[in-house]
Amino acid sequence: MELDSGILQNIRAAQNPDGGWPYRKGGSWTEPTVYALLAHQAIRRSAPRGSEAVAWLSAAQRRDGGWTPRHSVDESTWVTALVALLPPETIGGRRHARAMEWLLGEGAMDSSPMFRLRALLRDGKLPDGPAASGWPWFPGTAAWVTPTCLGILALKKCYWRRPSTDLRERIDEARTFLLSRRCADGGWNHGSARALGYNSDSYPETTGQALLALAGTDPAKLEGSFSLAQRFLWEQRSSGGAAWLRLGLLAHQQIPAGAPLFTMPCRTVPDTALTLLAAAAEQGYNVFLD
Amino acid sequence: MKRRDFLIKCPLGAAALGLAACSRTAALRPPAPVHIARAGAYSEDLYDTMRRVLAQHKLNVRGRRVLLKPNLVEFEPESAINTHPKLVHATLEAFRELGASVAIAEGPGHRRGTLDLADAAGYFETIPSFEDIFTDLNLDEVSRVRLPRPVSHLRSLYLPHTVLGSDLLVSMPKMKTHHWAGATLAMKNLFGIVPGGIYGWPKNVLHWAGIHESIADLHSLFPRHFAIVDGIVGMEGNGPIQGRPKPVGVIVSGHDPVAVDATCCRIMQIEPSRIGYLTLAGGLEGISEENIRQIGEKPDSVATPFELIMELRELRRVRA
Questions:
Q1: Residue of A140, A196, A203 lying closest to B309 (CB–CB)
Q2: Quick check: is B198 in a domain?
Q3: CB contacts < 8 Å between A and B, how many?
Q4: Is the pTM of this model over 0.95?
Q5: Is the dihedral of CA B158, B164, B169, B172 positive or negative?
Q6: Structural domain boundaries enclosing B59
Q7: Number of domains forming the structure of chain A
């Protein structure tokens, strides 16, 4: 797929005067700001008013080292993993290190020993699934697929820069969590593979995210996942979903020949940026893995 | 200062609203009117039906900002998961004819591409200029709102300005069974106003706070929102996503969401007193038949048993 300069222009045009990016219009948020910066990184171009963008982002870091979704929200959340995907030199080494500390200290409530003990006392058995912990969207809640995928990707990048046992163990634990949440159809949804004994269906975007986060996993463990992701790619219903599927399949060299290009409109800044990130990955530079 | 501005900025205002919510359940209050209209299909007749439904409630919305909040869950237009776009459009037109400024907003709980979802669900095709009047509540501007009398452990929630700034919030759910809550109707539909951009997809903070308790807490913030339930084709069995379509042929509406939801339960042949959030928000008085004034069709005349999964069979309503 050719890199489309119009895509980049759309991202640039959406930047707010404060340096951050909105989802569509309105105030700046951390998520679209990070994706806009990653898109510029992917094509090795400087972001417009880059220092203002970084300043906006820096102001969204809280004292605990985590990032808030937007300045007016007083809580560090899943977006911390997203910011940690940026190179340390972009947001500053100290800020980046504190983000990693926050991520390593953050766990999900459903894997805590207290939760499992209470479940044992209440139900007479431990909860289904391993005790392995992913990451929650919001502190004090359970782990889900998207924040866990982003957490793995952020920690992997850190590990490649500076390997450590702590990082390796946390990544492995989160990967175990992801594999335990795979749906019966081979893909992933938000993170609930079964409810009250009924199998749940997968979603394209989370299937793509999980495959990307599970790059390097033995293909035998992902049997059925590739064919499902390829089918989703042909049936694409959103540009964001299609981008994640391409990124996930590329990570395993499983993009089918003649796969359709993007057919859906990009309706948000993150979707526009992800489309560009997928295109850059097909040309050899995957900002999530390289 | 608008009522909702007051709520945001003044904790005492929030407390006052909470007291108002409590006083609703007092025995001396007048019975809450709930209207049941027959509607056999998602046809052009709906436009006339919705005009008549709103006329029954004598709504004074001239010059007011009305916000329709449908239930958008999944991409499948042919299933019974989402509130049907034809009903939303018919409601929008009916409110406009009453002189209201009408917008539509929703924040789906699982899927991130809200506009893509709305497109696939037929909203772009059915509602002219849909994108211009729609707000994705997951990504809207937010303010922190204190819960007046929380029954869950939540003390406050970030909520979208589009909802807080509206004069009349209209919850437009699909009539569905729900594998955790029993039934998902007007009150549970308010989960969609909690912003995913802050809390994630799903909005798990609500589940951890207790699903029934957090539904009741959201209700305490909007105790008098208007409700219009899409029961033309509902969903039975393993709802709210994997169930089967259940044709019922009704639209249920009213000012009191507790009374509307209790009436819907009776139509579904679910015992309302066994739905936790109904008793938390309305008390047994609020959901009793004596305290609901039925307009239009009687619940018994349109009642049809919704199939319940094994875990929910205890909710089945048995008439004496």
A1: A196
A2: yes
A3: 96
A4: no
A5: negative
A6: 3-25+32-315
A7: 1
